[in-house]
Amino acid sequence: MKIVPNRVLIILVVFLMQGTAVFAAPGPPPPSSTPPPPGLPLDGGIFLFALFSMCFGIYKLHKIKNIKNASN
Fold it and tell me: Is 43 in a helix, a strand, or coil?
């Protein structure tokens, strides 16, 4: 049996290409960080919103009352 140089070269290239596949593998995932904080608290501005709403309602009622008094 005669060894053909082309077959030796092909076999050698196939075995050497296996090593490059190992180096081409992706790296490990980054370490997990702390979980994000939960959403914003709902009670932070509710008091101010309620106060603003009451003031705006009083203003509108006062304005409607003045318009009715002015038309009479």
Answer: coil
